[in-house]
Amino acid sequence: MAFTVTSLASGSSGNALVIQRDDAAILIDCGIALRTMERLLRYRGIAPESIRALLLTHEHGDHALSAAALARRYGAPVICNAATRAALGAELDGVAVELLPVGERACVGPFDVSSFRLRHDAADPVGYRVAADGAAMALAVDLGSWDDETAAALSGADLLVVEANHDRELLRASAYPWATRQRIFGPLGHLDNMQCGELLARAGVRAGHEVWLAHLSEQTNSPRMATAGVGRVLELANRRGVSLRALPRRSVNGPGGAPAWHSDTRLLQQTMF
C-alpha cells in the first residue's frame, strides 16, 4: 500500500507536514493555528481524528504552535525527545506525550519512525525519517550546519525535505539587524541554498529522487533562487536528474494547492532510472 506526504506549511510563519496511509495519518510539526490546520486537513480528505501522533522537531512556535491544542482536541499523542518536552513545559500539560530519544525508532501506526539530531538553537532539535511499504521520506529543517551523520540520515530516502532558507548575498544585504543576520549565518541558524545543495550531494541524491526545498525565507530567498542555487551545486557534484521543488509557505485550497508525494511513484521512478 502507498503512503502520501503533503506539505501544509513551510517557513518562518509556520510548518506542518502530514503523512497518510489508508485511514491513518501522522503530523510532523504543527506550527499553524488550529482552525487553519483543521481546515487544511479536511479539505484534503484527512479527518483530524485520524491523526495517530504529532511528531515535533523542536519547540519553536513556528513548529509547535497548535500541537498541544490539536492533541487535546483529538486525543493524539505528541512525540518528541525529553529536552523538547521540557522546553515546552506547561504548554503540554494534559497532553499524552511519548518520548522518543534522539536516534531511536518507534512504530507509529503503519509507519516506522526514527529521529536524528540537527544543529539549531533549540533545546534538542531533530529531523525525522519515516518509512512504510518499502519507501522512505526524510526531513531536515531548521539547521545551521550539517555533518556526515546528517547526510547519512537522509541517504537513500525517496523523498527528502531539506531546508534551503536563504541566499547568502541577499541575507548580507538585507535589512535584518546585524545580530539576526549573524544568528542565521551561524552554525546553529539556518542553511543557505549552497549548503543545502552540498548536504544533498553528500547524502547521495540521484536521478529519481525527489527533493522538497523547505523553510524558504520570504525576505532573503525565492523559489526560483532556491531551485537554481541548489541545482547548480548538484550539477557541479554530478548529481543530475534530481527533482527539485520549493515548498510554498502555506498550502491553499484548490487543485495542486498543496505539494504532495506518493510513495508508489517510487516504483515508476525505479523503472525509469
Could you walk me through the main structural features you see in this protein, from its secondary elements to its overall organization?
A hairpin with a 6-residue loop joins strand 1 and strand 2 (16-21). By secondary structure, the protein is of the alpha/beta class. The radius of gyration is 17 Å and the shape is globular. The strands form 2 sheets. The chain has a 7-stranded mixed beta sheet with strand order 6-5-4-3-2-1-14. Strands 7-8-9-10-11-12-13 form a 7-stranded mixed beta sheet. It is 30% helix and 26% strand. It has helices at 34-43, 61-64, 67-74, 82-88, 148-154, 168-172, 178-185, 193-202, 223-236, 265-272; strands spanning 4-9, 16-21, 24-30, 51-55, 78-80, 97-99, 105-108, 111-117, 126-132, 135-140, 159-163, 210-214, 243-246, 260-262. Helix 8 packs across helix 9 (223-236). The chain contains 10 helices and 14 strands. It has one domain (4-272): 4-Layer Sandwich (Metallo-beta-lactamase, Chain A), CATH 3.60.15.10.
Number of helices: 10
Strand content: 25-35%
Shape: globular
Topology, number of strands: 14
Largest sheet: 7 strands, mixed
- What low-confidence regions span 5 or more consecutive residues with pLDDT below 50? none
Q: Distance between termini? A: 22 Å
Going by helix content, strand content and strand pairing, the class is: alpha/beta
* Name given to the CATH architecture: 4-Layer Sandwich
Strand-and-helix sequence, N→C?
EEEHEHHEHEEEEEHEHHHEHEEH
Radius of gyration: 17 Å
- Kindly give the count of domains: 1
Quaternary form = single chain
The side-by-side strand order for the widest beta sheet comes to 6-5-4-3-2-1-14
For the record, the CATH class is: Alpha Beta
* CATH third-level topology: Metallo-beta-lactamase, Chain A
Task: Output the CATH homologous superfamily.
Answer: Ribonuclease Z/Hydroxyacylglutathione hydrolase-like
